[in-house]
Amino acid sequence: MSGAPENPRHPATDRPPPEAWAPARQAALRIVRPLERFLKIQAASGILLLVTAVVAMTWANSPWQHSYEALWHTPISFGVGGAVFRKDLHFWINDGLMVIFFFVVGLEIRREIHAGELSDLKRAALPIAAALGGMLVPALIYLSFNTSKLTHHGWGVPMATDIAFAVGILTLLGKRVPAAMRVLLLALAIIDDIGAILVIALFYSAGVNVVGLLIAAAGVAGVLGMQRFGVRQAMAYVVPGTVVWIGMMVAGVHPTIAGVVLGLLTPARSWFGEEGFLHEAGDALSEFRDRSKSAANDKHELFNPLSRLDKARREALPPVLRLESQLNPWVAYGIMPLFALANAGVTVGQVHLGLEGTSAIAAGVALGLLFGKPIGIVVASLVSVKLGLCALPRGVDWRGLLVVGAVGGVGFTMALFIAQLAFHDATQLGVAKLAILVGSLAAGVGGMILGRALLSKGGVAGAARTVTEAETSTDM
Known about the structure:
19 helices, 2 strands
């Protein structure tokens, strides 16, 4: 039996590009390969966010703090002739780039509704109950500290969970965490995102302008019309998508909601599918082979089979899955860290907890995240199970729920985003940001400690036995 590989690589694929300089390419690979290995770690996005937040805090409290503030107020203009749209860099990050973040959130929701945890009500019952509890209790804790009209509008801040951080913490716990527990956290976080989106749209948007809604509706109609004509190239939808974004902004609804709307409109079914891909790719490769022999002097003949092959690759998977896969790295390692850099910087010396309402904001946000999330998630889940509305996933017991609740208290990205909308006073916003960072850090550390204490290396099997015993006792 030969030890040769079944699909040996062609010598040309092992060589560098013809225009590359070998020493420069080797130097680049020595830099890039460790980075690629880091990015393959599931916790990498959360680690990068944490590093970015530390950089922002350090910068905002350094002798160069004025350059930090000045950077985000740098004006950037787009337009032609007299029609110029001018906003600062902070706007383009929070209201522009974050549209892509919310678009990916919309894609995740669309995928889960079509063929995921949210496609079946029975499977979705537990994460829905957990998410609702995890949103309601933190809001109530915040309002219990903030009865004044000066500060009560920040109740939405501690409601959100940061998926990247939460999943990253579970990943760092390693084999202690069963797969069902990760799935539960992901489903819970997605439903939590839906709740946060609704809160932003309903409570943190300005008065609705009908003209803006009509503009957004025209953009949505453009998207649907293009889909009916069979337009499949994603870039073709940038124009109607921009119309939706402009319409939302004119309407007084936060423009990032446009990203969610467009994500939910993305098709969730593939055109070719796996079998169609194999058939079309096979035909395209055969055509390429035949034409390459007869087109020795005219390589233009090869464009047609290559185009067919590219189309087959593009249409093998549903657009919702393909776009999510393509955009996730850009969001996780580009947009979210940039957002954190622009928003996590709090000048501690300018945070005055002695001013009216500021200590209440700090307590409401930090305690809402640290205690409200786990209490809400665990209590709502256990009550739902006791009422027979749902069942715990096999391999997850109350200990796993407590860990999920604890890491769910890491709000960060979405919490910072809602804080920007809730607090227009600079002092209140600074206090809220600091409370988010403190509460999220405490929740993350608490989740790690609880995970190591409650989910020992034999904890997965023990949890499975506990759930089995609970199910047996329930059936008796």
